[in-house]
Amino acid sequence: MYSCRSLFLKLHLMLTMLVGLSACTQSKKTAASVGAAGGRHKFSYTNPITRDTAISMRDHFIIKVGRQWFCTGTSMPVWSGPNPGVRLLVSDDLIHWRQHSWLIDGKKLPANCPYNGRFWAPEIHYIQKKFWLTVNSGQVTAEDPKGMKTHSVWLFSSDKVTGPYKLVNGPLTPHYNNDATLFEDEDGQTYLYCSGNGLWQAKIDLPTGKLVGEVQQFRGAKDANNPGWMVGGIEGPFVLKRDGTYFMFFSTWTRGYEVGLLRSKSPLGPWELAAPEPIFGTRKREYRAEMARNGGYSNLQFTDTPDPYQETGHNAIFEGPDGQLWSSCHYFFDQRIPGLADWQKVPQMGFEPLHFRNGIFAIDGPTWTEQTVRY
Q1: Cα distances (angstroms) measured from residue 260 to each of 255, 264, 291
Q2: What residues contact residue 342 under an 8 Å CB cut-off, 6+ apart?
Q3: Domain 4-374 CATH class label
């Protein structure tokens, strides 16, 4: 008889081999083609999309401009060593990605630059006929080699998605904040959302980069009305509006890495959970076991998801190949799986179609076998 752990590892080894095989076939086939019947289009993909250590990132944010897609995110290394800056990738078909440039090259910044630290979770939004880049970083000093004591939000703008970007303002908040995102409402008003030991929000005047009023925390991980799966921590907001309702995606690392959904009738809340459980993500008890013990929530009861990942989260929404909304984020393989290739040992890009069912958004997955969307 095999032990449960042995069966787990053998199953995931098979999944790894399957993903590795599809990596070979994916690079040889066209991402989209026209079907013979009725001229219908077909888009096929297999997650993770990128399979290259050189362009590994977390927190993938994709934006379509013209007939191309551009992607930025948190470059490696995340937790240790000098972070290289804000990377920009480009793709003609959403499957094959290449390095375009560094929007911010950390090596070229002076030692006294106030944002030469971590460069976490950058995003690019097209609002008011400009591209707005949010970057979360602080200043590196001998006493603070990662720049975390001054880590906050910085705002840049450009006439082109590829830059050059000019600093508009920063830091936008007077304390630690991270994972900034922007949202423009139908009336032209714009809003900033971010994380930092919870979720924060404020109205923002983009031309000056100044907040209208103070940034306010509106949700903490340990709020009394939160379900257990949020208690470890919440971050990574992203806001959409549909049929008069505002929806906020956010991520939590309590049980692995999962995506939750809030909703409100106002861009500044009050926000309520749109779904009692995460709408997407992966759960792996052993991956977060030490964090759960240290955080006092190791008693949470849940079942591991069957996918081969230990993290799938911090999502953002973009226009996909079919003209519909899709969700992107990083897909990070379960590092307990034996025989992982080098590219599987670091986070990679993944995405799935975004659906709207029963009055809320939904994301099927995460997937790791070939998927086909017809349109």
Answers
A1: 12, 14, 20
A2: 53
A3: mainly beta
- Domain positions in the chain are 4-374
Backbone Cα Rg of the chain: 20
- Would you say the C-alpha torsion 133, 135, 139, 145 has a positive or negative sign? negative
User: CA angle 58-62-63, nearest 5°?
Assistant: 155
Residues 6+ apart with CB under 8 A from 340: 16, 333
Helix%, strand%, coil% for the chain, nearest 5: 10, 45, 45
What count of other Cβ atoms lies within 10 Å of the Cβ of residue 366?
Answer: 23
- What is the chain's pLDDT, residue by residue, as a tens digit (375 residues)? 434 444 444 444 444 444 443 444 344 344 554 444 445 899 999 999 999 999 999 999 999 999 999 999 999 999 887 899 999 999 999 999 999 999 999 999 999 999 999 999 999 999 999 999 999 999 999 999 999 999 999 999 999 999 999 999 999 999 999 999 999 999 999 999 999 999 999 999 999 999 999 999 999 999 999 999 999 999 999 999 999 999 999 999 999 999 999 999 999 999 999 999 999 999 999 999 999 999 999 999 999 999 999 999 999 999 999 999 999 999 999 999 999 999 999 999 999 999 999 999 999 999 999 999 999
Distance CA 114, CA 104 (A): 13
Q: How far apart are CA 276 and CA 299, in angstroms?
A: 19
In the numeric block, which tokens belong to residue 199? 């979720």
Q: Residue 370 and residue 343: Cα distance in Å, rounded?
A: 18
31/45 Cα distance (integer angstroms): 7
Q: Give the separation between CA 331 and CA 356, rounded to whole angstroms.
A: 22
Phi then psi for residue 342, to 5 deg, are -55, -40
Contact 58, 330 (CB under 8 A): yes
* Contact between residue 88 and residue 100 where contact means Cβ atoms under 8 Å apart: yes
CA gap 58, 119 in Å, rounded: 11
Number of DSSP helices (H) and strands (E) in the chain, helices first: 2, 24
Q: How far is CA 158 from the centre of its chain?
A: 22
- The amino acid present at 230, given as its one-letter code, is M
